[in-house]
Amino acid sequence: MAYKTKDWRNSMRVTVDYNYMMSKSLGDKGITDTELRQIKDKAQEAFDYVAANRGRDDLYMGWTELPYNQEAIVNDIIATAKEVRKKFKYFVVLGIGGSALGPIMAFNALKHLHYNELPQKLRGGPKFYVEDNVDPVRMQALLDVIEPEKTCFNVISKSGATSETMTQFLIISDILQKKGVNLPDNMIFTTDASRGNLIKIDEKFGGKFKKYVLPDGVGGRFSELCPVGLLPAAVLGIDIKGMLAGAAYMDSLCSKPNIAKNPALACAALQYISMKQGKNIHVLMPYSDNLKLMADWYCQLWAESLGKAVDYAGNTVNAGTTPVKSLGVTDQHSQVQLYIEGPFDKVITFISVGKYATPMPIAHGCEDIPDVGFLGGHTMQELIQAENKATAYALMRAGRMNYTINLPEVNAFTLGQLMFLLEMQTAYTGAMLNINTFNQPGVENGKKATFALLGKKGYEEKKAEIDSAPALDDKYIV
Ligand code: PA5
């Protein structure tokens, strides 16, 4: 299906500018063309690995095909979303991690920044909340502002065994049932096709829940472009076909094994080289409040994918760099001092926007006070863009590696591109590190320890192990 015209798509192309990573700008603090040439074979291998394994469920690489294989699902989601928008006053996602960060990121990126506060007429759809924690105060706060019987709850969990999500589910189910609500009328499940506890719960209700499948080969953090993200987005009135078309477009831009022609491979190569040079912190700094939560989503993608103890050869590698979320210009007044003068241990990735949804003119005034008067007659868009450029330049002058991902504007198509670019970059970097990018043994261990501490059957051994850990010593508690 063609999405808008070719010229329009080209005008919305997301690009990467890595001049300020290179020695031409940074001198001996930068990457040389020779170093880029030396990484060519590794980049080629990473490209080949990803290309050869695209779509493989057993390797959790099903996400690469999501832009292409969901036509029927997308149509079904759009129809369901239409009903939900008509019937419900609130839409609440119950989930955590990969099941929550994507939906909330897309909401933040593509909807009004004060969406829930808008009058219904302007909002056009239900109020929207994502419960990605088990903080009791937060749950109470949600219950204080929604009317559960007028709410559609989208329970998102591949396993249906995640304590956080299932806790949210139990609390909400109890409330709904006490109000006489038939759960399938107010709940939609997004889960595994045939396994997992949500399937068992559905069976108890005679298969009456509306269900969407979280495909086998798609891990939580790579799931925003499957029903996990598409249903909430469609309920919000987001152009989900545009998001998928953007992802497909970026995929086409990443079809060559050449760093100079493949933006995701270029980013991966730069990250890999800088990692080997001791840059172990990776800051993502969007200059857009709409993309603020993109940094949250990305931190999970990068951290869970690359933070691995061993490589495929069985060597202990303790791989990964620490992702840090930052926001321009807000964090110029908080973190940038450290980035410019602190240790040389960071790579900063900016996300810049060419055209904001509104430029917001700055009024004239205070002409007699030059420090203030010079602002009048400009726009806030000019100011934020100037500050973005100035910060990148100042970092470069201080010998700090940084590069910029440019979005012509923030819309469904460019967001789809950005997500796919970051996913591909992560997959390529993992391949260069020769690690399993798509599992999360550390997270699973934490889940098991929680089961043990709460006395779940079958975790007695784990509980005994935790109990036998050295007792906490009072002398270290002040
Ligand atoms: O990226 C991941 O795989 C995790 O963050 C999961 O999404 C998260 O742990 C929730 O798991 P589940 O979907 O099984 O409830």
Q: Would you give an account of this structure?
A:
This protein has a five-stranded mixed beta sheet with strand order 1-10-9-7-8, with helices on both faces. It has a five-stranded parallel beta sheet with strand order 3-2-4-5-6, sandwiched between helices. The chain folds into two domains: 2-57 and 242-433, Glucose-6-phosphate isomerase like protein, domain 1 (Rossmann fold); 63-240, 3-Layer(aba) Sandwich (Rossmann fold). Helix 6 (101-110) runs antiparallel to helix 15, helix 15 runs parallel beside helix 19 and helix 20 crosses helix 21. The chain has helices at 6-11, 23-26, 33-38, 40-53, 71-87, 101-110, 120-123, 136-145, 163-178, 183-186, 197-204, 227-235, 240-253, 263-276, 292-306, 336-341, 370-373, 380-397, 412-433, 441-453, 460-467; strands spanning 15-17, 90-94, 127-131, 151-156, 187-191, 210-213, 281-286, 322-325, 346-355, 402-409. 46% of the residues lie in helices and 12% in strands. The mean pLDDT is 96. The longest helix is centred in the last third of the chain and has 22 residues, at 412-433. It has 478 residues and is of the alpha/beta class. The chain is built from 21 helices and ten strands. 5-phosphoarabinonic acid binds at residues 96-99, 157-159, 162, 165, 219-221, 304, 440, 443.
